[in-house]
Amino acid sequence: MSKTTKGAGSGKPAEVMQRHEQRRITLTLNGRARSGHCEPRELLSDFLRHELGATGTHVGCEHGVCGACTVRVDGVAARSCLMLAVQAEHRSIDTVEGLAPAGQLGDLQDAFRRHHALQCGFCTAGILMSCADYLERVPEPSEAQVRDMLSGHLCRCTGYTPIVAAVLDVAAGRARARAADHDATRLEACDA
Ligand code: FES
Ligand code: FES
């Protein structure tokens, strides 16, 4: 049962959840409204996996070190093991399942496949989510920038080189697509 107490310093009442109290959380998962129940102490990573069935998100260290649990929260890459499920209420969460919504691999996933950028795959979902965020913010990174971004992830299998190659390949492919779109738009403007 919830009880009400004074909020720290505010003089206003604040709701306090009991340790084993279940709370219903509603959020947007990969573009779809979802809801489920969690305890106040439950990690977002566990809520996604066990309550919402989004098992593509992996859990390694649970200390914010390995990066395996990385998801996007309102578009920004974040460790889901460092966030409580209750903090995700009414927010938009993207997981690796959202990269292939129609059952087709997204360009990042396809590049990882072509470059053999995964072996056991335990780290892969988190790395993909960081890359998805990063390439939106830095569309044409250098190799050094990609390696710096990947420093937030631990991969015991690949040695990182094929991952770097895959990310740079995607960045180059997207740059070519943007240039082709730009040229097509200019041609249409000339024809008009
Ligand atoms: S499980 Fe979250 S960073 Fe390792
Ligand atoms: S592919 Fe095995 S830990 Fe990265």
From TrEMBL:
GO MF: 2 iron, 2 sulfur cluster binding; metal ion binding; oxidoreductase activity
Pfam families per UniProt:
Fer2, Fer2_2
Domain 2Fe-2S ferredoxin-type: residue ranges:
23-99
Taxonomic superkingdom: Bacteria
Protein's name in the database: (2Fe-2S)-binding protein
Q: Which UniProt keywords apply?
A: 2Fe-2S, Iron, Iron-sulfur, Metal-binding, Oxidoreductase
